[in-house]
Model the fold of this input.
Amino acid sequence: MRVILMATLVLVLAGCGDREKVVVYKQGEYQGKTDAAPWNNAIYNGDKAKWEGDIRARGRQQDESRRIGG
Amino acid sequence: MARMKFLCDSERCIECNGCVTACKNEHEVPWGVNRRRVVTLSDGVPGEKSISVACMHCSDAPCMAVCPVDCFYHTDQGVVLHDKDMCIGCGYCFYACPFGAPQYPQMGTFGVRGKMDKCTFCAGGPEVDHSEEEFKKYGRNRLAEGKLPICAEMCSTKALLGGDGDVVADIFRGRALNRGKGADMWGWGTAYGKEGAKQTPPKDKEGKS
Done:
C-alpha cells in the first residue's frame, strides 16, 4: 500500500515540473532557427559573387528601355 | 551588396492585381491572407492613383521592435523574415506596421488567429532552402534560385520594381527624368528612412522632387 502511495505521489509531483520553453532568452534578440544565405544551396554552391551578379542582371531586366534599346 | 527593396511607380500601376494573383499562386497562400494588395487613392476621381502594397522590408522595421517573442530577423540582404514556429499570433506587428503587411489566417475554430504570414520578398524562411517545410510555412524561395519576387517580375507595366535598391532606384530615376513627372517614391521615406531618402531621384520638370 505504501509503495503504491509513494509511486502515485511521485507521478503527481512530476506533473508540477515546469521546464524553460526557451533555453537562452535574450531580450530583443532573434532566437529562432538560423537561415542560410541565398547562395548557400545546391544551385549556387556558395558562390556569392555569381548570385549577386544574377540578381543584379535580373533586376536590370525590369528596365524595358534597356531591353528594347530605347 | 545593397539591400533588397520594393518600389511601386504610381504613374504606371493600372490596378490589374496581377501582382496579387501571382503572389497567391506562387506561394499557395491560404484563403483570407493577402501578402500583397493594390490600394487605389481617390478612386473614381480623375487622376486616381494605384499602388501595390506589401511588406516593404523596412530598414528599421517596427514589427521587429514590438514583437514580444522576437521572432523577426533581418537577412544580410535587408529582407525582414520571421520564424513561424516562434510566432504566437498576438497581432502586435499588425498594429505597428505602417503598410498593414502582417496577415493572419483564420481557418481555425471560432476564427481563432493563426501565426502571422507576410511577404517574404520570395526569400522563404528559416528552414532548409527549397524544402517542403519551407514551402509550406513561407512559400517558394525564389531569391535562392537567383530570381526576384514574382510580383515584380510578373508586373505587366513594370510599375512594381523589386530587387537591389541601387538598381531599382536607377531604373526609376531614368523613368522620372524621361517623363518629367511622377518622381514620388511612395513609402520609401517610411520604410527606408534616411537611407531611402538618399536615393530620391532628381527634381522633375515641374520642380517637384
Observations:
- Chain A has a mean pLDDT of 84.
